[in-house]
Protein backbone atom coordinates (compact mmCIF):
# COMPACT_ATOMS: atom_id res chain seq x y z
CA UNK A 1 0.00 0.00 0.00
CA UNK A 2 1.39 3.37 -0.94
CA UNK A 3 1.60 6.23 1.54
CA UNK A 4 -1.08 8.85 0.77
CA UNK A 5 0.24 12.32 -0.04
CA UNK A 6 -1.98 15.33 0.63
CA UNK A 7 -1.70 18.95 -0.45
CA UNK A 8 -3.36 22.04 0.93
CA UNK A 9 -2.93 25.64 -0.15
CA UNK A 10 0.33 26.06 1.76
CA UNK A 11 1.32 22.57 2.85
CA UNK A 12 2.27 19.14 1.64
CA UNK A 13 1.63 16.17 3.92
CA UNK A 14 3.77 13.16 3.10
CA UNK A 15 5.72 10.32 4.63
CA UNK A 16 8.24 10.93 7.39
CA UNK A 17 11.58 9.38 6.40
CA UNK A 18 15.03 8.88 7.87
CA UNK A 19 16.05 12.13 6.13
CA UNK A 20 13.80 13.91 8.64
CA UNK A 21 15.79 12.93 11.74
CA UNK A 22 17.12 16.45 12.38
CA UNK A 23 13.70 18.08 12.04
CA UNK A 24 11.98 15.46 14.22
CA UNK A 25 14.70 15.90 16.83
CA UNK A 26 14.23 19.69 16.75
CA UNK A 27 10.49 19.33 17.28
CA UNK A 28 10.57 16.74 20.07
CA UNK A 29 13.54 18.28 21.89
CA UNK A 30 11.57 21.50 22.39
CA UNK A 31 9.97 21.56 25.86
CA UNK A 32 7.16 23.83 24.64
CA UNK A 33 6.13 21.27 22.00
CA UNK A 34 6.05 18.29 24.33
CA UNK A 35 4.67 20.07 27.39
CA UNK A 36 1.41 18.10 27.12
CA UNK A 37 2.88 14.98 25.47
CA UNK A 38 3.30 11.56 26.95
CA UNK A 39 6.91 11.45 25.81
CA UNK A 40 10.08 12.70 27.45
CA UNK A 41 12.01 15.53 25.88
CA UNK A 42 14.40 14.18 23.25
CA UNK A 43 18.07 14.45 24.16
CA UNK A 44 19.54 12.47 21.24
CA UNK A 45 18.94 12.03 17.54
CA UNK A 46 18.65 8.29 18.19
CA UNK A 47 15.30 9.02 19.86
CA UNK A 48 14.17 10.81 16.70
CA UNK A 49 15.29 7.83 14.59
CA UNK A 50 13.35 5.50 16.87
CA UNK A 51 10.21 7.61 16.59
CA UNK A 52 10.46 7.62 12.80
CA UNK A 53 10.79 3.83 12.93
CA UNK A 54 7.66 3.65 15.08
CA UNK A 55 5.73 5.81 12.59
CA UNK A 56 6.95 3.67 9.67
CA UNK A 57 6.13 0.37 11.38
CA UNK A 58 2.71 1.62 12.45
CA UNK A 59 1.83 2.36 8.82
CA UNK A 60 3.40 -0.81 7.39
CA UNK A 61 1.53 -2.95 9.92
CA UNK A 62 -1.80 -1.22 9.26
CA UNK A 63 -2.07 0.22 12.77
CA UNK A 64 -2.03 3.96 12.05
CA UNK A 65 -0.46 6.71 9.97
CA UNK A 66 1.58 9.85 10.65
CA UNK A 67 2.32 12.52 8.05
CA UNK A 68 5.13 15.04 7.89
CA UNK A 69 3.72 18.56 7.63
CA UNK A 70 5.91 20.48 5.16
CA UNK A 71 5.62 24.01 3.87
CA UNK A 72 5.28 24.07 0.10
CA UNK A 73 7.40 27.19 -0.18
CA UNK A 74 10.60 25.57 1.11
CA UNK A 75 9.72 21.90 1.86
CA UNK A 76 10.60 22.47 5.53
CA UNK A 77 9.19 19.90 7.98
CA UNK A 78 7.31 21.98 10.56
CA UNK A 79 5.40 19.25 12.39
CA UNK A 80 3.53 15.99 12.11
CA UNK A 81 -0.08 14.89 12.25
CA UNK A 82 -1.92 11.65 11.89
CA UNK A 83 -3.99 8.86 13.27
CA UNK A 84 -2.09 7.18 16.07
CA UNK A 85 -4.27 4.11 15.96
CA UNK A 86 -7.41 2.94 14.28
CA UNK A 87 -9.96 0.22 14.79
CA UNK A 88 -11.36 -0.92 11.46
CA UNK A 89 -14.12 -3.00 13.09
CA UNK A 90 -15.37 -0.07 15.17
CA UNK A 91 -14.60 2.49 12.40
CA UNK A 92 -12.78 4.65 14.93
CA UNK A 93 -9.44 6.45 15.03
CA UNK A 94 -7.44 8.65 17.40
CA UNK A 95 -5.77 11.81 16.08
CA UNK A 96 -2.58 13.60 17.10
CA UNK A 97 -0.47 16.54 15.88
CA UNK A 98 2.26 19.00 16.77
CA UNK A 99 4.10 21.94 15.19
CA UNK A 100 7.34 23.78 15.86
CA UNK A 101 6.60 26.91 17.94
CA UNK A 102 7.69 29.31 15.20
CA UNK A 103 4.67 28.08 13.20
CA UNK A 104 2.09 28.33 15.98
CA UNK A 105 -0.82 30.67 15.35
CA UNK A 106 -0.40 30.66 11.56
CA UNK A 107 -3.24 28.25 10.73
CA UNK A 108 -0.94 25.39 9.71
CA UNK A 109 -2.35 22.98 12.31
CA UNK A 110 -5.92 23.70 11.21
CA UNK A 111 -4.99 23.32 7.55
CA UNK A 112 -3.18 20.01 7.98
CA UNK A 113 -5.54 18.40 10.50
CA UNK A 114 -8.56 19.41 8.41
CA UNK A 115 -6.96 17.69 5.39
CA UNK A 116 -6.43 14.37 7.17
CA UNK A 117 -9.93 14.44 8.70
CA UNK A 118 -11.39 14.98 5.24
CA UNK A 119 -9.36 12.03 3.91
CA UNK A 120 -10.59 9.81 6.75
CA UNK A 121 -14.23 10.68 6.23
CA UNK A 122 -13.93 10.18 2.46
CA UNK A 123 -12.96 6.55 3.19
CA UNK A 124 -9.49 6.98 1.71
CA UNK A 125 -7.47 5.60 4.63
CA UNK A 126 -5.92 2.14 4.32
CA UNK A 127 -7.96 0.95 7.33
CA UNK A 128 -11.28 1.51 5.55
CA UNK A 129 -14.27 3.65 6.57
CA UNK A 130 -14.05 5.87 9.64
CA UNK A 131 -17.15 6.97 11.54
CA UNK A 132 -15.55 8.61 14.61
CA UNK A 133 -12.32 10.50 15.25
CA UNK A 134 -11.27 11.05 18.84
CA UNK A 135 -8.73 13.44 20.31
CA UNK A 136 -7.47 13.71 23.87
CA UNK A 137 -5.99 16.86 25.36
CA UNK A 138 -4.53 17.68 28.75
CA UNK A 139 -6.37 20.45 30.62
CA UNK A 140 -4.45 23.66 30.04
CA UNK A 141 -3.66 22.90 26.40
CA UNK A 142 -6.00 25.66 25.28
CA UNK A 143 -4.54 25.98 21.77
CA UNK A 144 -5.28 22.33 21.02
CA UNK A 145 -8.77 22.62 22.52
CA UNK A 146 -9.47 25.63 20.25
CA UNK A 147 -8.16 23.80 17.19
CA UNK A 148 -10.41 20.82 17.82
CA UNK A 149 -13.46 22.98 18.54
CA UNK A 150 -12.83 24.99 15.35
CA UNK A 151 -12.76 21.70 13.43
CA UNK A 152 -16.21 20.84 14.86
CA UNK A 153 -15.05 18.35 17.50
CA UNK A 154 -17.34 18.17 20.52
CA UNK A 155 -15.88 18.13 24.02
CA UNK A 156 -17.34 14.97 25.53
CA UNK A 157 -15.97 14.95 29.04
CA UNK A 158 -13.02 14.62 31.34
CA UNK A 159 -11.42 11.25 32.03
CA UNK A 160 -9.86 11.77 35.44
CA UNK A 161 -6.24 10.64 35.80
CA UNK A 162 -6.53 8.36 32.77
CA UNK A 163 -3.04 9.13 31.49
CA UNK A 164 0.27 8.43 33.20
CA UNK A 165 3.58 9.84 32.01
CA UNK A 166 6.46 11.90 33.33
CA UNK A 167 5.89 10.24 36.74
CA UNK A 168 2.39 11.56 37.32
CA UNK A 169 -1.23 11.01 36.42
CA UNK A 170 -2.98 13.36 33.99
CA UNK A 171 -6.62 14.13 33.38
CA UNK A 172 -7.59 13.91 29.73
CA UNK A 173 -10.32 15.86 27.99
CA UNK A 174 -12.04 13.73 25.38
CA UNK A 175 -13.12 15.29 22.10
CA UNK A 176 -15.02 13.46 19.38
CA UNK A 177 -16.00 14.16 15.79
CA UNK A 178 -18.51 12.03 13.91
CA UNK A 179 -18.60 11.71 10.15
CA UNK A 180 -21.97 13.48 9.81
CA UNK A 181 -20.74 16.41 11.93
CA UNK A 182 -17.82 17.14 9.61
CA UNK A 183 -19.71 17.67 6.38
From TrEMBL:
<dbReference type="InterPro" id="IPR000182">
    <property type="entry name" value="GNAT_dom"/>
</dbReference>
<protein>
    <submittedName>
        <fullName>GNAT family acetyltransferase</fullName>
    </submittedName>
</protein>
<feature type="domain" description="N-acetyltransferase">
    <location>
        <begin position="11"/>
        <end position="181"/>
    </location>
</feature>
<dbReference type="InterPro" id="IPR051531">
    <property type="entry name" value="N-acetyltransferase"/>
</dbReference>
<dbReference type="GO" id="GO:0008999">
    <property type="term" value="F:protein-N-terminal-alanine acetyltransferase activity"/>
</dbReference>
<keyword id="KW-0808">Transferase</keyword>
<dbReference type="Pfam" id="PF13302">
    <property type="entry name" value="Acetyltransf_3"/>
</dbReference>
<dbReference type="InterPro" id="IPR016181">
    <property type="entry name" value="Acyl_CoA_acyltransferase"/>
</dbReference>
<dbReference type="GO" id="GO:0005737">
    <property type="term" value="C:cytoplasm"/>
</dbReference>
Amino acid sequence: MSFPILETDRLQLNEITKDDVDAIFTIFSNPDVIEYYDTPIFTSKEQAENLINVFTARFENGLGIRWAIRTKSDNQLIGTCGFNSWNAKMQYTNIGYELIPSCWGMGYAHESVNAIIKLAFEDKLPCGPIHRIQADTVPGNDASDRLLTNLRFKEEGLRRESGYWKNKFHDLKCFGLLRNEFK
